[in-house]
Amino acid sequence: MASKSAHSYANYQVVESQESPLRTYLLPYFRHWPWFVLSLALALAGAYAYLLYKQPIYRIQASLMLQDEKRGTVDNTPLKELETYSPKKAVENELEVIHSSMLMDRVVTNLHLDTRYYRKASFGKREIYGDSPIWLLVESGKPELYKKMLEVSFPSSQSIQINNQTYPLNQRIQTPLGTMRVMTRKPISAETAPMLVQVMPQAAAVGLYLGNLKAEPTSKTSAVIHLTLEDPVPQKGEAILNSLINEYNQAAIADKSKVTANTLKFIENRLNMVSSELSSVERNVEQYKSTLGITDLSSQAQTMLQTAQQNDAQLNQVTIQLAALNDLQEFVNDKSDKRGSTPATVGLNDPALLGQIDKLSQLELKRKELIQTTSEENPNLQIIDNQIKDTKNNIEHNIKTMKSMLSRSQQQYVAQNQNLESVIRKIPKQERTLMDITRQQTIKNNLYTYLLQKREEMAVTFAATISDSRTIDAAKSSISPVKPVGIVIYALFGLVGLLVPTAAIAGKRAMNTRVMRRGDVEEVTQVPIMGEVMSKKHRDVLVVAPNNRSVIAEQIRAIRTNLNIDKHDSEESQVMLFTSSISGEGKSFLSLNLGASLALLRQPTVILEMDMRMPRLHQSFNIDNSIGLSNYLNGEATIGEILKPIPGYPNYFLIPSGPLPPDPSELLSGPAIKQLLQSLRQQFRYVIMDAPPVGVVTDAQIVAPYADSTLFVIRHGVTPLQSLKMLNTLYREQRFQNMSIILNAVGGSDASAYHFNHGYKNSYSYK
Asked: Which residues form a coiled coil (predicted)?
């Protein structure tokens, strides 16, 4: 055996592609273009079906203008100056009020929106509103009522079938789903089309329509609010928005009326008290004058009386303000049980205090709305409670400050009264007594007149209370649907149609455990690659023939060229070993055809069928396998007896495996194999050994020392990636002489990734 320390061939050189890495990456996907076309077509068909079954959605819009003092939209009406304290409108706050569940709950109740009616159409079902012939009112529903739509039909003009159960119309009925009434809105007959009815819990209906409602100002400086609602039934959407605007105005009027009513109640209480006091004083004056015969006071007494009356009038104003402050303080302290009410502020004109009361009312309103949809433990509710607490503290602080100031003023007026009284004491007793009584009469009279005036003002305000908003545009729906948008649906479904096969291919590639490309081999091992052979579903056993110019035949000839056969001037024979990692990687096919290509060079070539466990070569040519390699190794036959010519190839011979021996590995380990190869070297220029896979048995490693070179076959899509590590280990440990790799069955479009030159292929008209 002539072992060589260097390769007798040139490494296979891959032509560097001029194509971009992106194109190289996408080429495996282009190979599966029929799947992309099919998936895209199915996705577009799905989009078409979706558009047929999806009920169109319309957009309904309305606009509302608020009176916002900050934004200069307050109307200066003649009644404006009569208004007492009332919360000032701010667009930001009103947006929250309009979008509150409290108002929408009223709308859902008024319009019975917790029940939706559908009519079957050619494609799916379509919701109806005003066209529904019935009106289903649920008095008490069981949980099953809200889980599934009711199938409603009309067997006669006086009865209705709900889920195949017949009930009378316009009466209270007991059903397995609860107690309800079905009222007729239009004449019913047996020809009335069946319907589907969906009943929702009140809270679910409120949430549904609030989710479709959008309220926003037209700009940051505008007090005009645009209300937008999307709904499949334009008439229903318009009714919802108009009802919502009406409920908002009614709530604003009720809030303002509540303030006026509280003020009127306060004035009435004061009037009743002052009226009785005034009556008592007037009786005293009359009685005193009639008893003593006094008709009028002197000029000095009149002057003193006028001064005292002025001082008393101011003292009364202070007293009224102190009383209002006391009521306000009581209101703040007791407000935990009276949330949502508003205090009377008659006589108070401090802007800081009124602002704090305004803020408190807004916070109370916000808390009232929030508590309807959440619990006391909600963090947002706790934040509002803290703000309310802080505002109350500020109000109490202001009340204390004002009461302190007013108390000092009251003390001054009282002191001044005492001075006046000391002067009055100098007046004769009868006149002084009359003056005192007259003075009390004047005080009570002025106070009574003042309260009467305020009561009339409040009465006028209460009767003329109007909303602080104005409807600019009533609700109106769009002419054409706004959803679904056909081009968007087609684009989305088309994108899904492209992503599905892309993800499938990418997932398959990610889960792959087989060698799929040249890079898989080059990343793991440094074993040189001798050449590549493309994949073909049906190929002959011997593709290398004198007149065969197929791609595979030329690729095998290229491998022969890489062996540098023509550069060996010596007549020394070459022994080549073919093996692989597992069975089915094509080593027998490649070894047989490479031997054929060498034989076509008129070089004596013999191939040994060393895979005695699974021999296949002799079957390809129907060569008798009753005597072969195993017989020679056992000393039962000579070389001449086991050499079999391959038909059509004068210089090509085959040594079949012979009968399967019980111990092939031991048989190959004997001295006979060495003698056989020495004899074959003398008779043939090329000796090819088709050995079993190294990952299965050790036969290939046993005969490896007798080979001059080793060709390891890796098949695209068959060879496990894990086998490459074993190959690299064998290479580093030099278990085989001059090892190189042949990539077999490089598949389809992936061949482009190996940079085969299409121009070369076309110019020579390969088949």
From this structure: 264-291
> Hey, what long-range contacts does 290-299 have (CB within 8 A, 24 or more apart)?
292/430, 292/434, 294/430, 294/431, 294/434, 297/431, 297/434, 297/435, 297/438, 298/427, 298/431
* 3-class secondary structure, 348: coil
Q: For the residues of 414-442, what is the DSSP string, one character each? A: HHHHHHHHHHHTTS-HHHHHHHHHHHHHH
Q: Which two tokens stand for residue 475?
A: 């609700």
Per-residue model confidence as pLDDT tens digits over 117-163: 999 888 888 999 888 899 899 888 898 899 899 999 999 888 999 98
Q: Which residues contact 58 (CB under 8 A, 6 or more apart)?
A: 230, 231, 232, 233, 234, 237, 477, 478, 481, 482
Residue 227 burial class via C-beta count within 10 angstroms: exposed 0-12, middle 13-18, buried 19 and up = buried
Comparing 298 with 753, the larger pLDDT belongs to: 298
Q: 10 Å Cβ neighbour count for 474? A: 12
pLDDT at 619: 87
Amino acid identity at 139: E
CA–CA dist 145, 154 (Å, integer): 20
Res 205 pLDDT > 80: yes
19, 22, 23, 25: CA torsion to nearest 10: 120
pLDDT at 348: 74
Distance (Å, rounded) from C-alpha 468 to C-alpha 449?
A: 31
Phi-psi bin for 628: left (phi > 0), alpha (psi -120 to 50), beta?
beta
Alpha-carbon distances of 659 from 407, 577, 614, 620, 633, rounded to whole Å:
129, 22, 11, 17, 11
* pLDDT at 755 (0 to 100): 41
Please name the helix (run of DSSP H) or strand (run of DSSP E) that holds residue 402, with its range, or none. Answer: helix 379-424
Q: How far apart are the first and last CA of the chain?
A: 41
Q: Which two structure tokens, joined as six digits, stand for 298?
A: 């002197």
Q: Which two tokens stand for residue 386?
A: 């803290």
Looking at the DSSP bridge assignments, the partners of residue 125 are 120
Rounded Cα distance between 694 and 727, Å, is 9
Residue 167 in 3-state DSSP? Answer: strand
473, β-bridge pairs: 63
415/664 Cα distance (integer angstroms) = 135
pTM of the model: 0.55
Range among 71-75, 448-452, 535-539, 626-630 with highest mean pLDDT value: 626-630
Distance CA 626, CA 642 (A): 10
